[in-house]
Amino acid sequence: MITLKSLSGFSLETIHDAFVKAFSDYAVPMNPDIHAFKAMLLRRGFDKHVSVGAFADDLLVGFILNGSRLWTGKSTIYDLGTGVLPSYRRQGLTTRMFSFALTLFNHDQYLLEVLQSNTSAIALYEKQGFKVVRNFDCYQGKQDQIRCQDIVEVKRVESLNAVPLGMFTDCNYAWQNATDSVNAVVDIFHYYCAYDGSHVIGYGCVDPITGDVPQFAVSKEYRRRGIGTQLLKKLGAVSQTGVVKFINVDESVDSMRRFLDANGMHVFVKQFEMIRVL
Hints:
By secondary structure, this protein is of the alpha+beta class. It has seven helices and twelve strands.
């Protein structure tokens, strides 16, 4: 018999073990060690009290891992990972877990992302009242493909706290790339700014272990001069994998898509951002 419970009180090791097993056959490889898993949860605002586990006796066989924060000015629950162990699928567990999750919180909206190729999950989420609000592209490219000349000064800084981020970006970052998410694990990133004299005209940050770039932008009046490419090359040089990744880029932002295409980046997966108003 399957019982549903809040994950409050359950260990990180128990949740990690179930996560790895549930995503063992996922379309995008997801096999983080315990330290990377902890960082992922911290970054996305994981909250055990609003997260759900499905248990067969004492074994965690399904889960919805939720985070909670203000998002676009509204109190928001974010599904940072839903999974069921392979041998327990096709038993309606995900639907049951969603219904149970809604009893654990009282927020304005519920947010998630899903692979556009995962049609069964999309159908389930639509049945639960979620609607697509944005299309996301995930890019990656090799660092050694980025070529440019040094045009301005680009140097490492301690953080982006002093940078007026809203003046640079063309859209809201996805949840995992938002400033609250970056600040939650601030020490794992390297931060760089581009300068015209003492004036910041661009910025970016990168996880040196994975090459993930959660935030990147150049002031509009300084674009199409090679400054973005110079900044991107600096971030790429830090990546220990030799690869740079931009996860969940808003497909509607033409300027960013053109920039990434021009620098040899390619889309390796597409996602939908979906929201259910509560």
